[in-house]
Amino acid sequence: MKNLLYIGWIGFNNLGDELLWNIFKEKCGEFLDVKEFEITPSVPGVDLKSLEKYDMVILGGGSLLLPGYLQILQKALHQGKPVAIWGSGIDWIEKKNLDLLENNQLKSMEQNFKQKDVEVLEEVIEKASFVGVRGPLTKKAIEIMLGTEKAKKVKIIGDPGLLLKKPNLTNKKEKIIGINWGTTFNRLYGGNEAKVEDQLVMAAKELIKSGYKIMIYTVWGNDIPHCERLYKKINDSQNVILDKNLYKEKKLMEKLSQCMGTINFKLHANYLSFTANVPAIALGYRFKVFDNAASLGLQHLVVSTDSQQLTKEILERVAIIEKDEAKIIEQYTATKKEYSPLLESLFTNGYL
Fold it and tell me: Pairing between strand 213-217 and 56-59?
């Protein structure tokens, strides 16, 4: 019996992180002999300082390439245990540094990784059996820290959300825009969640004027009060549905499949939308959203939350969806086809 430790931000009823864990479990069941494996998820109560009983440690999907998690992988390596990085990404890079990174002008990552953290990252990447990261911006950031030669081992494999299975979609599309709203406790580009919310209200009112209905939905319990406030501010019960249910991924995809498009605050709401064949506009509130969009080749559908013309930019993206719906879904499907074998290679190539 081989005991695997899967590290993720799980056990907090956040649909995005939970679905990544669900996908990992599903793939283990699909490709491994489950009788030979015991998989422990890092839910609250699991002591990540005590790794003795595990045979291997996997850093799973999410924005987990952080010094604290990397130190856990380093500790596992020092105990002679293999480790893997599976679709994880970097986050928390300031907007000005994101802009520099995208233009190949960022020289240092010292705001996020001190020298001792870089040394841990270097050792983990050198010794890990599998290193697959979420997107090209994460890989660029690693190259800045380690140099291109040492970062060669790092493969871009996409977010594990790409492995979501399409449910049986029977809903006919209607003129509905889904809006996923919530909170990051004001830790977002622009530093003003209330302003973003007000701009979103204005965008929703404009969409209603042009014949759309709005469906507000959530993927995390903590976001419900923020969705309720958005609903009250739009103040149009005839044209706005507030759905406070915390659905499992399959059920939520079925719900979203009736929409023409979605506008999403939380990262994995975009994957649920795309998997339901619904183009998604991402509110770029932190680095991870831009990294993710770059991996999908859909950067033009991101609106940064520090934009001075947020309402206008959202409406422009809706116009792009109206015009290019088929092309957008085609692009997502092509990316899924490219990355799925890379994500599955952790299971199919004998790493576990």
Answer: unpaired
Overall pTM surpassing 0.85 (yes/no): yes
Place of tokens 């149009």: 236
- Number of structural domains, the chain? 2
Q: For residue 99, give every residue at least 6 positions away whose Cβ sits within 8 Å of its Cβ, in sequence order, or none.
A: none
Residues 135 and 106 sit within 8 Å (Cβ to Cβ): no
- What CATH number should be reported for the domain holding residue 319? 3.40.50.2000
Q: How far apart are CA 270 and CA 47, in angstroms?
A: 32
Bridge partners of 302?
282
One domain, residues 125 and 236: no
Give the sign of the dihedral formed by CA 192, CA 281, CA 291, CA 132. positive
φ, ψ for residue 148, nearest 5 deg: -65, -30
Helix (H, G, I), strand (E, B) or coil at 322: helix
Q: How far apart are CA 282 and CA 299, in angstroms?
A: 9
Pairing of the two strands 176-180 and 261-264: parallel
Residue 169 resides in a domain: no
pLDDT tens-digit readout, 101-142:
999 999 999 999 999 999 999 999 999 999 999 999 999 999
C-alpha dihedral (220, 222, 223, 226), degrees to nearest 10: 170
Query: pLDDT value at position 219?
Result: 97
Write the CATH number for 144. 3.40.50
Q: Rounded distance, CA 8 to CA 47, Å?
A: 13
Same domain, 208 and 330: yes
H or E, element range at 240: strand 240-243
215: enclosing H helix or E strand: strand 213-217
The answer as to whether 101 is a domain residue is yes
